[in-house]
């Protein structure tokens, strides 16, 4: 027995019970009809001329019904005689390569066949201008040559800063359409100033480029579209500020405020840009964002298949497993930190041989006197928190909360012969 096993052998593991969390389930049922109705504004239609080429900016995040949103927008433009094409708008994602960014779109289901429009992918940009402090502003060269530009994105809280405008249409314009150079420029001075620079850079681009409209969505706690809107260029900032407020109201959460150990089965870039959404975990990569539960120790056990070895976010946890380290693609992971300038999430947290040891390590170090009363919460990932597991020490809190319901009696965590909760 090694020293690690010796230190952890007597740490008790709590029994857990399944608990349901309830959230607002408002969603748009007939998306195509709703979006088409929002697009059918005289002011929007008047800006579109037959024969004009229109670049539609589509990003790398897994928006709900992204293919449908894009296809309906393409059809609307084509019906008015325009010639739309798709431009990947995802900053440095996809390995910061043209082929990689097109592959990301295809992975999300956005193909030339599924949306009936050509995909033109390039990392070339042009410089739009500079902010007063000298920060350069860029835009995709292909989009800049188009007769019109359309942006499709979801509005939601950012994971590293707070402000009236966070993640949404304006961020897509300033960073997504700016490609690798735009992403680097916007991150150059750090997240402390991001709430100022994202709208400033976007407004400069909006002023100098032929934007036609934006399609904006906000999703409910189950990642289903709760609202879709179409904004004209001069109303994007005002409308996005309002939709950002709504997104925070609809944001899913763990309703338990004080957690000794948060156990997360899987993280990945398909779950969040940070691997796991800090708005759910309460653990942020910078000091410029806040909210969520007070978590003493956090454990991540594995990576999603879709993240393809990109373990960005693992450093935000206190403990991880050898399984993650074995799957880690360092180049893909470290590229996130080099672009965002925030390298803490790309660190490798304290690594244990298996899940059981990682959980015991978190319990041992969570600073409570009686380990048998540990307040532990286990989630699959930060997108799937409708049903969670909680330790017995939290069941009274569950009973007292109107949005929580205990579903099962308590049971032991089921570690297999290799000391893992799953393989």
From TrEMBL:
Residues 25-191 form the LarA-like N-terminal domain. It comes from the Bacteria. InterPro entries: LarA-like_N. It holds the Pfam family Lar_N. This is LarA-like N-terminal domain-containing protein.
